[in-house]
């Protein structure tokens, strides 16, 4: 499955547009990670606990979006975008969405 943020894929043409597809997850912070992040915040630098958490959440969202696109018969998702929102204190939703399409060689 090709997933791109652009409107097109070089060397391919869109033969069919199947519609909006999305994948999301809601993640809560973990007390153990918060303690490590608190101390890292005091001395500065990357908060690796949260970097890893967000990377896992992004991959899960993409997997869910690709699964939905596959169920529609797509072989690509174009114009993929991420969005986040806070659901409650300490928990956030991560959403990825795009347009499922069928691509063919030009």
H-E order: EEHHEE
The structure class reads alpha+beta
Number-wise, the strands total: 4
What is the overall number of helices? 2
Radius of gyration, in Å, reads 17 Å
> Total domains, how many?
1
Average pLDDT number: 87
Which terms summarize this structure?
106 residues; alpha+beta; Translation Initiation Factor IF3; 4-stranded mixed sheet; elongated
What does this 3D model show about the protein?
The protein has a 4-stranded mixed beta sheet with strand order 1-3-4-2. The two termini are 18 Å apart. It has helices at residues 31-43, 48-72, and strands at residues 2-3, 12-28, 76-88, 91-105. The protein has one domain: Hypothetical protein apc22750. Chain B (Translation Initiation Factor IF3, 2-Layer Sandwich). With 106 residues, the protein is α+β, with helices and mostly antiparallel strands. It contains 2 helices and 4 strands; from the N terminus they run ββααββ.
């Amino acid at each position: 499955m090709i997933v791109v943020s652009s409107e097109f894929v070089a060397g391919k043409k869109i033969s069919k547009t199947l519609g909006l597809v999305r994948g999301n997850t809601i993640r809560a912070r973990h007390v153990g990670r918060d303690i490590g992040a608190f101390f890292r915040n005091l001395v500065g630098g990357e908060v690796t606990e949260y970097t890893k958490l967000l990377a896992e959440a992004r991959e899960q969202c993409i997997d869910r979006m690709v699964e939905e696109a596959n169920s529609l018969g797509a072989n690509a998702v174009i114009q993929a975008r991420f969005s986040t929102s806070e659901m409650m204190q300490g928990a956030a939703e991560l959403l990825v969405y795009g347009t499922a399409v069928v691509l063919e060689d030009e």
